Amino acid sequence: MATIYPSQPPPICLDGKTPHVMIVGAGLAGLLLAILLDRINVPYEIYERSDKVRPLGGAMSLNANILPALEQLGLFEDLKKVAYPSLTFNIYSGNMEKIEKIATLGGDDKAFEAIGYENHLFSRPKFYALLLSRVPPERIHYKKKVMSIAHNREGAMIRCSDGTTYHGDILVGADGAHSGVRQSLYKLMQNDGLLPEPDTKALSKGYICTVGTAGPMDPEKYPCVNDPTASSYQIIGEGTPYSWSFMSVPNNLVCWNIVKQLGSCESEDERFRNSEWGPESNEAMIKEVRDFRVPIGTLGDLIDATPKDGISRVFLEDKLFETWNHGRTVLIGDACHKLLPSSGQGAVNAMQDAVILANCIYELRSVAENDVAEALRDFKEQRYPHVKDQYRASQMSAKLLYGQTFFEKILRKVVLNYMPKSIQRKSMTKDLAYRPQASFLPQAPKRGTLNVISQKPSKRYQEKQELAAVSI
User: Which keywords label this protein (predicted)?
Assistant: First the structure.
């Protein structure tokens, strides 16, 4: 994959209008925000707590909710080179008996006609590498774990564990579910009596997930990896707290994950041992699941074909925080809304945050404290209602795909066997009508017949276009 950086990173501007942005966290949301800020010549620096990039393994999918924005940035065509269209989503029982076969956008002609985009499935590290290739390496500073923050009328500051401090006009916490920026911000607000009571509570917990990417697999032995479309299976165990998935992606790779539903005592114990995505000791879980079946054999076959340092374990938590911004500080992605991965919308919503935040920064009139605070409030007002809907959807999807309680089994049977296809299609198209784009770039071509939800236009961009038209 070619490495493409801007010809020259934008310098820090002291005109009183262009902010210097500090992005904490080099995840998907942080990288996409950086790419967007480059397009409007806003200077930024990224501060990452780890010593190097360790993208999580496993599969990831993107759809019409974010693909138009990637198309604006010239990333969509490159994404398609490392992705497969996903036509169906197959749900099976633990003995590999079909429960349901759901046609996704590419496999449902009526839905595709309305939406105009297919679902694209790929290995998460491949997409991460694509975004990383668009960010100048000198803009990312590693081993910078944020210990505290401060902001006032003059600007924002972070203090890192190595004793260094950095200053800017806007501080963006894109540092995940256990965000150091959020924890520091909430401590400041709590001391001043400004933090809402719900934000003092811990994230909800209930599942643990082990994830990896196996391969390359031998196409003669496993012919499904040669299929030009993704083979996607969700398998729900019987008499076990486990569910697991199998997804083929380009380059003869197979992405897999194993989700275990936990009891309350077990959840509390696991919470302290699994605070973030990353390599973990997975031996106990692996021993329990090795013989579980997948379309090409067993989970053990996939695990054995996966590099050990490419297997990660995470405690699945979820929470929608009320406080996303205060003063010069703003949170995006998992730092302010941690969604369960069941609906595949966590990364999508994080990247949508980056798009809308970049739009709000573009509209800034000055770097004065009041103007910055107003722009960050506007960001939350635009995003919160949409995230709230997706948060609820992720909880419902988790019940359907991971749930092992009596109620969840009944719910799954009713939804998968008795819900009319027309209702499923209507729900799908409604969710995909929300497609935020960068307001400061030419809009991506409209695809599909669906009426897309309009977004807040850019007055600045309109004035710029009108001025350019007059000067011609």
Answer: FAD, Flavoprotein, Oxidoreductase
